[in-house]
Design a protein that fits this description.
Phosphorylase Kinase, domain 1, Transferase(Phosphotransferase), domain 1, 5-stranded antiparallel beta sheet, 3-stranded antiparallel beta sheet, Aminoglycoside phosphotransferase domain-containing protein, Aminoglycoside_PTrfase
Length: 378
Amino acid sequence: MGTPLEALPTVSVPAIEQLLPTINLPPAKTITILNTKAEYHVIALLTWNDQEDLILRIAGPHVPRTKTENEVAVITWLQRNTKIPVPAVVHHDSSTDNPLGCEYVLQKRLKGQSLDLVWPSLTEDEKLKIYDFMVEVLRELTSHEWKHIASLRLTAEGEIVPGPVLDERFWEARDIEKYFPPGETVESLNPLGPYSSYVEFSIARLEKSMHAIRKHESLAFMRPHLPLLEDFIEALREDSKKLNRTNLCLAHRDLHMGNIMYDVEGHTVTGILDWEFSVVMPVQQGELSRAFMHDLVDDGGWGERKGKMLEVLRERSQEEGGGDVVERFGYVSEDQEEMQEVVDLVRAIVEVSPRGQREGERMGWRDEVLEILEGWMD
C-alpha cells in the first residue's frame, strides 16, 4: 500500500514565484519549502518585509477539489459562526489550472509553535488554561444545529452548503486502480452523501463495504455473512427513530497537539490548523473518537494519558458551570454503540484485506461482528 506522502507533488520555488503575481501578490522576500510535510500537502513559508508571513499548502491529487473546497468552506464557517481561532485564507484554488499545477490554499501564518513541541515544558497552570480553551472549542463545535452529515463547500455567492462526506480512510482513485478490478470508482466504494441521519449514514457505510466484499476476492470469507448484514440493515431501519437520537456537529477529526498552535510568550493558543478532512458528523463520531489532544508521543502509553486528559476536561467544564462537555459525545444506548461498532469493524476488514494487511486480526474482527449481529437477531 502506498502512503499519501508518496503522491505529494514536487514543487519548486520558481513555480511559487510565478504564482504570486497571478493572485495580486508582490514578489516574496523569501520562499522556503519546508522539509516537514503534512501527509496531504507540501508546505512553503512565504515572507515579506511589510506584511504578514503566509503559509502555502500545496495539495496532492488524493481527493481532487473536494478536500480543498471543504477546508476553505469550513474555515469560512468557523470565522462566521464561532470564536475558534483559525488561519485565515488569503487565496485558494481547487483546480490545477495555475502555475503550480496543483490545488493549494494560501493562509496567514499563526504565531507560535505546535503544542506537542512545548507541552512537556509547560507549567500545570499553563496546561489548565489550554484545557479551558479546548473545553470552549468543544462547546462551540457542539452548539450549532446541522441538518446533514457532510463536508462543506462554498457556492459562488459565498453560501455554505453541504458537500460529499470526506474521510482519510476512504478509497482513493490511485488505490482503487491498484487493488480493485476495473470498473470500481471512488463513488462505488465510498459513502459520499450528504446524509440526513445517523442511521442513513451507517447503512450507506455498510452497503459500500458489502459492495467491496462482493467484488474483492480477499474478502470472500465475509460473503457467507452478507445475508446477516442485510438483516441487520433492515433492523437498523426499523429502529431508526431510537438510533437517530444524536446531535450533529462539525468535527475536526484530527485535533492532535501538532495541529494546535501555542504562543509560549503570550501563554495562549493562537489557532487550530488543518481542517481539510473536517465534516459534520454525529457527535459520537466527532472529536473524542479520534486523535483529540494526542501528544504525538509514540510510547504505547497514549490510552492512559488520554483518559487522564478527558477527566481534566470533565472537571474543568463542570467547574465553569456549563455541564460535562465530554458527556456530549457519548452514545445514548447500547444499541447505538453496537451499530457503530459493526460499521467500524466491517469497514476495517474491507480496508485492510485487499491490501494484505492485519491478517492476524481480520478473523477476530469478523467474529466480533457476528457476535453483535447474532445478538440483534435473537
